[in-house]
């Protein structure tokens, strides 16, 4: 940048350098978390290779780590990263084109490029403008969800690319070892590159084939935003907003698909609670303690309308529509005491048949505890203690702690809350669990 229009904010003094550098690195981390998906998607539209796009986006991140501590954070850091990554992509394409011309001059085939002629950078930019759906992030999801990959690989890769999540965070979402997720991501990128999967939203017939994985990806991205697996913040609202936006786009693409509307309904209703899920200091506020006047009524109305649409399309027994119906029970209750917990148990009974999982059973135990008493809920939760998939899942001891506390078994409750606190990697959640542990023992 040159002249008076410079976008750089310079450090005020060398004495503040250590503090400035630390703050700058925190800023870079925050910007990358928010912008990485758009940057990767924007670059992938040029290079048509998501693995290469991520590599070039990472190059831009390295450039920021080198430049920003000394020059200051740009006024529009996301645009700086995008421009830097795209410039590197164009340089790579120009080099490929030059390499191809040299081969042609010497009468060689450009086997290294994997095609007869290298792509023309300008032509790629024009072609990108002509795609059916003008949403790079949506293209990125559908590309990463190509049938050439296994379902687990599709979801893991897209969470990595779309949400900027680490392998560890994705592993917690899947309840599998981190090394397993890391291997899936590496292999998935190699497979997409080897298969020369096009960077596009597929046409209607092929789109349906990939839709299930796409819905799962959006669902998991929202969940990561709604309850962050790690870090200092209870939530990442930007991820929730991105997942909700993409769900709405999908609803436009597949207007007659009940599960798409079911997912929209679920995310709209869940997002309505976000303003009430933390207090003024950013501390978590649990569902039964939330000020329901802070729930967003517009999002609730949108969610209930999407649920009605899903049911009208015959999708009432879809996994996402059932979860939306569960959320709707809370949304319709003006106070916690008005909640129809028996209806919630009935819905969990159906969900356990449609999409059985230990997590569904744990949530059902909570509902049974609310509807029929903590002893009934604890019996179901105790039956899950030997479930391998829940061995490192902190919500199991957390749920048991809550039920034990309600039964007056305070010392046991305290131990469970402490165990849950030791298992979570989210600082805010850990603080909440430690607070509940301290409150579990009645004062004398």
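Q: What amino acid sequence fits the structure above?
A:
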């Amino acid at each position: 940048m040159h002249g008076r229009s410079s976008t750089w904010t310079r450090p005020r003094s060398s004495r503040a350098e250590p503090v400035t550098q630390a703050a700058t690195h925190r800023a870079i981390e925050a910007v990358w978390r928010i912008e990485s998906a758009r940057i990767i998607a924007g670059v992938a539209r040029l290079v048509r290779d998501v693995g290469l796009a991520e590599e070039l986006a990472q190059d831009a991140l390295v450039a920021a780590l080198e430049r920003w501590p000394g020059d200051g954070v740009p006024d529009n850091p996301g645009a700086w990263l995008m421009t830097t990554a795209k410039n590197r992509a164009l340089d790579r394409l120009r080099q490929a084109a030059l390499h191809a011309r040299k081969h042609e001059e010497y009468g060689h085939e450009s086997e290294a490029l994997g095609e007869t002629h290298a792509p023309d950078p300008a032509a790629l930019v024009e072609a990108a403008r002509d795609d059916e759906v003008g949403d790079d992030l949506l293209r990125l999801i559908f590309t990463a969800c190509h049938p050439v990959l296994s379902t687990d690989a599709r979801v893991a890769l897209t969470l990595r690319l779309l949400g900027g999540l680490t392998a560890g965070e994705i592993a917690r979402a899947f309840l599998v070892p981190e090394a397993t997720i890391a291997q899936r991501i590496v292999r998935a990128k190699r497979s997409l590159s080897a298969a020369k999967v096009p960077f596009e939203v597929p046409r209607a017939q092929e789109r349906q084939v990939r839709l299930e994985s796409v819905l799962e990806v959006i669902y998991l991205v929202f969940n990561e935003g709604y309850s962050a697996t790690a870090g200092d913040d209870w939530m990442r609202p930007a991820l929730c907003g991105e997942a909700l936006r993409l769900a709405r786009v999908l609803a436009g693409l597949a207007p007659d698909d009940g599960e798409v509307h079911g997912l929209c309904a679920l995310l709209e209703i869940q997002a309505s609670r976000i303003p009430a899920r933390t207090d003024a200091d950013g501390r978590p506020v649990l569902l039964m303690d939330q000020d329901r006047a802070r729930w967003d009524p517009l999002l609730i109305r949108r969610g209930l309308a999407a649920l009605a649409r899903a049911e009208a399309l015959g999708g009432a027994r879809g996994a996402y529509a059932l979860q939306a119906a569960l959320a709707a029970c809370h949304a319709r209750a003006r106070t916690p005491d008005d909640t129809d917990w028996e209806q919630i148990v009935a819905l969990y009974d159906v969900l356990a048949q449609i999409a059985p999982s230990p997590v569904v059973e744990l949530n059902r135990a909570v509902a049974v505890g609310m509807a029929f008493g903590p002893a009934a809920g604890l019996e179901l939760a105790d039956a899950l203690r030997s479930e391998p998939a829940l061995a490192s899942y902190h919500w199991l001891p957390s749920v048991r702690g809550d039920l034990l506390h309600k039964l007056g078994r305070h010392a046991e409750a305290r131990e469970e809350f402490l165990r849950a606190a030791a298992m979570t990697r989210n600082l805010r959640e850990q603080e909440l669990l430690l607070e509940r542990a301290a409150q579990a023992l009645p004062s004398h």
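Q: And what stands out in the fold?
A: The first strand starts at residue 230 and ends at 231.
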